[in-house]
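seq as requested:
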Amino acid sequence: MTTTSATSTIVSALGGGSGIDMAALATSLAEAQFAARIDRNSARADTVERQISASSTLKSQIQTLAASVGDRVRTGDISSQPAIANGAVAAVSRGVASGSGNYTLEVTALAGAQTLTSPAYAAGSAPVGSGSLTLRFGTITGSSFTEDSGHAPTTVTIASGATLADVAAAINAANAGVSAYVASGADGAHLMLKGAEGAANAFVLEASETVGEEGLAALAWNPAGDPARRLANAGDAAFKFDGLAMTSASNTIAEIVPGLNLKLTGTNPGSPTRISFSDPGAAATAFMQDLTSALNELAAELGRDADPQGGDLARDSGARAMRRALAALAGTLVMPGAAAGQPATLADLGLSTERDGTFRLDTTRLAATLKSSPAGVAAMFTTGLFGVYGTLDKLARTLTAASDPGSLGGSVSRYTALKTRLAEEKADLADAQEKLRAQLVTRFAGVDRRVSASQSTLSFLKAQIDAWNASKN
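struct tokens:
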């Protein structure tokens, strides 16, 4: 007998105990409910990840470019460099300014520092008495000492039971401009004192003894005393620069002329040596070629990332800011203080921008600028506020500032924050999906129980019907 009751319909729809996996069914329905939103979240997360990568790459490239230019400028392979014919007389180096020209140097005396020794002691651990030692500074002429009133004396307290080594440590701790150490000579241990270079840094040593612990007086010294204890005299350097007699308290002389530092190391009386500056032309040309190549690499990366047809940064404000900055770079005033006719822009060094955003080096214009104003070109390659490095460094800082939402740094910050929000949204969707799945499992469990009950009732009814039919037959 065929039944058409509601029970039979439910049993048929659910498989009538045929083994439907209600838990799997709940999972599938929950996944279907959230699939579209999860897919959208994943797609947005993938896009944001690419945007972070693209903007970070551009940010890194412009920062690396500026840092590399800074390294080139600091090492001095671009600007004119000084060289000296006789390297035994002095070491030369580039100063803050840009140097040029040729000079002569004749050194007749090096700056010296006074060196003083104590009488001989049995050992560095030998006791020396207690009290105080006073260093006074000034100039020494023969056996006379003239104190420098502008150089305050230094008094060092020597504790009871102090040794020669303790005295050296106390003098060093005073930071008076005199260094002290204990040296072992052929006749015993000596306290060695050495001052700073320059005639005005000569010194005398006075002692004040503690009654009953005498001994410090043996360390005292003045030029009228034992002359043999002064092993070296304090003196100024004496030299002629381009024939002009000069003196210096130090052998290190900064910016003796703009762009030239000297460190005197020897003498050459009667035999002047020559100092000259190199031609920066070849180095500047090589630098501009390297800069043009690096800018084209940056422009190519920007072109791919900001391509209106599918670029990850097609509508990014930071990428647009970089495009505008690069387009204006060649004409940017990098030397605002340049005199009329002197190079003041990268365009003066041959850099030009093409319509497609790439860069080209006009070597003819660069050569003309180098010929007409080599010093002006050299001045553009410094580490100051202005010049090629200062301009690129400022550009890099502006384009990568995290505090500016319109910069690449702002883009990285914005995309990173969005990535975090998308990750939180993904977690929320997963929680909501799991909540729905649990609810469906609960509901389906109830349906499953009711279906089982209906099946039992249907089986009983079928059995009764079959019994009735059998009794009629």
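Residues 350 and 365 are 5 Å apart (CA to CA).
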